[in-house]
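Dear colleague,

Thank you for sharing your sequence with our group. We've completed the structure prediction you requested, and as agreed, I am returning the results in plain text so they can be pasted directly into your records. Please verify that the sequence below matches your submission; if there's any discrepancy, let me know and we will rerun it promptly.
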Amino acid sequence: MNDFNERAQLAEDDYFRRRDAELIERARLARAQPPAPVTERSTGEQALVDELHIEDPALVGALHAAGLDASNTSLLEWLPAVEVAWVDDVDMHEREELRRQYATDPASNGASLSLLTEWLFVRPPHEALLAARQALRRRLDALPEAERTARVRQIVRRCEVVGHASGGIFGLGALSWEEHDRIEAIREAIGDDTDPLKGPVEI
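Please find the predicted structure tokens below.
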């Protein structure tokens, strides 16, 4: 690497470090705000119940506390990939690729992309990640078999791609044992009975 390229890389690294710090602090301050009145929180949770068609106050409450609401339920299927990204801490490649891929989702919008970004800087609560697995299993089990299989495989693909990202160029790194075990746990939780996928894949 010549001097110019090295200086450019250092400048880019410094930019991302400063941006990361700003976003983390912004998310920390947002989380430190006083909780919303019970009536408002209940209204938001009920709207999420209506959208997800899941009558489980504890499960829906955990997802709502992590930022999920009736306007961004498409993010539910991305939470397993976020969970895998945090196994070895999220790096820049994982963060930017997940954001780029989610931006191509027809259901994505500015607000949901911002929440995904927050989850990639500040780890979602453990309870929300477990609730996401349970909610996905219930929603997936209600689908016709062919659609259920396709959606399950897509969710697992995202997890595997994120795991491969942390070892090199996106999709070409090796899964760590921790990532492998986490993906297997997610596969089992959401009802994936297909063979594990191999190699880099699109998400």
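Summary note from our side: The chain has a mean pLDDT of 80.

Kind regards,
the structure core
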